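Q: Got a minute? One more chain.
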Amino acid sequence: PHVGYVYSGATAAKAFKAVAGQKFETVVVVAPSHRASFKGFSIWWQGAYESPLGQVTIDEEFARTLLNTSRFGSFVQAGHVREHSLEVLLSFLSMAIGQYKLVQVVIGQQTPAVCRDLAKAISKTVRALRPFVKSPRVLLVGSTDLSHFHNLKKANELDGHLVSAIKAADYDKFMNCVVSRKSEACGYGATFAVML
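A: Always. Here it is, folded:
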């Protein structure tokens, strides 16, 4: 989740506890754009990202390869400026796994075609950069919140469909829940791409 720490911090901490102590070379965080409208998805490809716990270096080779492998990927600076859905997760990642390189992907257009292209490009990039490594040590993180502004009963009902699909690793059911409006998730495309 990516709302303020007061609302989702405990849930995020529980999620990242699942990978605590493990070592990953690269973490690909896929998040929805809340402030900019653009086609496809944007990949920040150089430098470092400042977090409350210090700088996180961008995995430039991975990011550039991902850009060159995808059909819908580009760099749209506005997609990354002040985008909270990615930045609130970085401190949790640093606490859980220590040092890592970051690839940040912000989705502007959360269509199935865009998400499938992103998933395929991530897979191709991992295979291209780590062809002889049995376990490439790449962590994929999809950033989303579920329903907003509902009473607890309604929120549990709406969210239950998506939670069920995620637990079953049923990405088609997940997307169908969102498209049919049986559920709500602002980062549904990010989650869908990571599930693929």
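A: The chain is about 45% helix and 15% strand.
Q: Perfect, thanks.
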